[in-house]
Automatic annotation (TrEMBL), chains A, B:
PANTHER family in alphabetical order: HISTIDINE--TRNA LIGASE, HISTIDYL-TRNA SYNTHETASE
Record's protein name: Histidine--tRNA ligase
GO biological process: histidyl-tRNA aminoacylation
Keywords: Aminoacyl-tRNA synthetase, ATP-binding, Cytoplasm, Ligase, Nucleotide-binding, Protein biosynthesis
Pfam family, one: tRNA-synt_His
Protein's organism: Micromonospora yangpuensis
Subunit annotation: Homodimer.
Residues that hold L-histidine according to the record: 85-87, 115, 129, 133, 279, 283-284
Catalysis: reaction(s): tRNA(His) + L-histidine + ATP = L-histidyl-tRNA(His) + AMP + diphosphate + H(+)
PROSITE patterns named in the record: AA_TRNA_LIGASE_II (PS50862)
InterPro entries documented for this protein: aa-tRNA-synth_II, aa-tRNA-synth_II/BPL/LPL, Anticodon-bd, Anticodon-bd_dom_sf, His-tRNA-ligase, HisRS-like_core, HisRS/HisZ
One cellular component (GO) term of this entry: cytoplasm
Amino acid sequence: MSKPTPISGFPEWTPAQRMIEQFVLDRIRATFELYGFAPLETRAVEPLDQLLRKGETSKEVYVIRRLHEEPGATAGDDSLGLHFDLTVPFARYVLENAGKLQFPFRRYQIQKVWRGERPQEGRYREFVQADIDIVDRDTLAAHHEAEMPLVIGDALRSLPIPPVTIQVNNRKICEGFYRGIGLTDPEATLRAVDKLDKIGPAKVADLLAETAGASPAQAKACLALAEISAPDASFADAVHALGVTDPLLEEGIAELVAVVQTAAAHSPGLCVADLRIARGLDYYTGTVYETQLAGYERFGSICSGGRYDNLASAGAVSYPGVGISIGVTRLLGLLFGAGELSVSRSVPTCVLVAVANEEQRTASNRVAEALRRQGVPTEVSPSAAKFGKQIRYAERRGIPYVWFPGAEGAADEVKDIRSGTQVEAVAGQWTPPAADRTPLVG
Amino acid sequence: MSKPTPISGFPEWTPAQRMIEQFVLDRIRATFELYGFAPLETRAVEPLDQLLRKGETSKEVYVIRRLHEEPGATAGDDSLGLHFDLTVPFARYVLENAGKLQFPFRRYQIQKVWRGERPQEGRYREFVQADIDIVDRDTLAAHHEAEMPLVIGDALRSLPIPPVTIQVNNRKICEGFYRGIGLTDPEATLRAVDKLDKIGPAKVADLLAETAGASPAQAKACLALAEISAPDASFADAVHALGVTDPLLEEGIAELVAVVQTAAAHSPGLCVADLRIARGLDYYTGTVYETQLAGYERFGSICSGGRYDNLASAGAVSYPGVGISIGVTRLLGLLFGAGELSVSRSVPTCVLVAVANEEQRTASNRVAEALRRQGVPTEVSPSAAKFGKQIRYAERRGIPYVWFPGAEGAADEVKDIRSGTQVEAVAGQWTPPAADRTPLVG
């Protein structure tokens, strides 16, 4: 068999990187649970018609079929695709299980998703997302929109990564403002403003004229709104200074003030009201979130979401929600690429028990059992080679301790192979310093 | 939108069941790490030719393609399939990364796999496996085969499930024995013997005559071998009593004796030598493992594997390995189906902080922050409804405590809503009993 090669867009971490990823996922999960979000996992596949409801993303969907589909089979499998996010499956899950769920329903979901996009740095075809959402029946209180940044702030700041800033806006501000200045197509307007970072204000003004029928004055007002950014409620004054009035605009301002103030009370500097944040053409109807990682801004948001009122409804009942999603693979890919995250060893093992000769393997196994009962990750040496070679086995993997079972009644000894210190020890009593017990990520 | 319905073979647990699954996966992972296995995750897709190397399983593979594949695109995506186990991807990963890995390489891998089989109880199209493997370069010491049952025994016995028995056999025993009695097609013989549980000894004898050219005496000898079962090394005497001699048979007996004795020293009763265990037509060349869950034997093995010498090789270098895989979804599906596993609440939340009125939400948020800093999973009440209604919110989810922030300088109070006991408490100092902190699984 010839040597296999990687598949573009489908990243695979080394075991050491996977240890870092698990550390990151454990911390994120712990924070989500600390806020009372219940875990959920949905199947990897959805009916294709569900996946295509959003329209725009259809080109990204992977369809699956059984290799040997029976000729007379129903369309069942043919119409399944891999999910491209966790929000669409969650909305489907809520509708399917509404009778069994308690509302408001708070859930987190950490899973892989797949998109057939062109791979590039920070963009993958298979990647992990970590989502939280709160969904209620009929109405969802706006204070849930203020809670999202607290959770995400705590989750991301529990990680050994650069500082993050969560940028928030509110769709009602944009739509109310556009309506207030007489523009009738808020979606086209948003779509144009969303390109600000990519094409600059002059071209956005042209686009506004072209696609949203904006006059030069209207385009100028839209751009002025998008330029507003403040770390506190003062953004509201800046909006009011533009002299536009509209009830939806005022509703949006009040909601965004609450989000910014709640975040500031929790952790100053975490949130910034940034009125250019639009989140494309998505299904958002209230607060929207994006997140910048300091030093990696050019790769875009690492954590995004917003409020959606119309994603799930059955008959007269609707399930408005708010959610946010951490792009875990993007985050790790960027930091791994920059050599920014490391782990103190490439295996979980803290102690390698040496084997004097194969006849003594049982004695070494007994030592290992005693160490494991103390919660110390332990391997028994795979060979009874010279001790120097067994020590090198540990060294190459970063295992900090080698244990030598005592021969013929002599005491056991344990050697810290970093310092060379070797001391007598009793398996079942000895434990390593806390910092050595599990690999350190930093 | 009409109510969505489940897709057969793609199970989805409730949040409470998912908490149980996470508990189970955490315990399994902790045991794997305690034995020094490093984590690995491979992409969900493999080139189709890799997946079809085993031949027999080709009908089960799911192929993926991009919905809007460009007409002129290369075959890239067309020839990808979802992996149906974690062993084939692991063998591929080892070949691809051999230069970067330290051998023997011990890894665990816990992921979903997909098979297009007909769904039935205990069989799914999407399910989670938890695998460990040890792979070395050129040769792999036999003592690694004796280590597998220790790890699996510890992992499964850390779970609140019925007792398990690991059945072990060794391919060398079968092949050596068949050769020793003059049968020349060991694969056909194994295939026939493997049907013993399904079709009984008389029909197996017919099949042996038909497909392996066995005489009545040879068929009888094969059946006599398959009937041997012992919890200790005495199986070897029973084999020898059949009067067959062959060097490969003796090698297999010695290896299986070591496996059984190592397991007995670690935990008596865990392992049984059972010479009918064949593991079908797979790639195994030494020890093979199956695992019975007491009371669920009719659903088959919940944890299987074996030694394989020829799964991965590149040029003159081969990578023999031994591995075993826990069928986590099958295990959980059976126990959930029997109502055997439960969790003490349906959310991680330990404390619900009441909200007296919306103006006081900030004060309740502050209490929640102080509780979370103590590691206590906490939610703030979603509404400032009457306290009775807020208590019912907690009750319905099994949240054990409701916290009442004190009004106007009065002390806060916390109520255990199970007992009704309400006491004064200070957020940041109060902590719940350890048993209440996280949901209990049992």
